[in-house]
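Subject: for your reference before the review

Hello V.,

The reviewers asked for a structural picture of the protein, and I figured it would be easier to keep everything in one thread rather than splitting it across files. Below is the amino acid sequence we used in the manuscript, unchanged from the supplementary table.
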Amino acid sequence: MSDFALWPVLAGSAACFAVGALWYGVIFAKPWQRAAGLSNTQLRSGNMGVIFALTFAFEMLIAMVLWHLLVRTDPPAFVVMMMAVGFAVGVMIPAIGINYLHQRKPLALFLIDAGHFLTGMAAMGGVFVWFRG
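And here is what came back from the structure prediction:
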């Protein structure tokens, strides 16, 4: 197994991206918008192509780092899931928590975004388990 494998990284990124599309587009669209304090006009004002492309690029970077760790350590499937979820719980969620505390963001926004990271990383981990299986 190579330190970098395009298909697992793309698939893991796509899984995380799909979770985000469901999370922010369907499940928590309105609660997230309210918690973020964004109007419909503000949401339409951004360049969605750039936003989505950069989101996917960042998710690919996360996937590449996680895939590299998996290749180097060759853990069993349950540990792959622990590592993926552990990334979210131990690194990503605390990082956004720190930022949100200093930015005085509401708890609701933190919980919605933290849930996205947790679920997205679990999806990425599941894809990686499937690719390594």
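For the response letter, the relevant points are probably these. The chain has a mean pLDDT of 96. The chain is about 85% helix and 0% strand.

Happy to draft the paragraph if you're swamped.

O.
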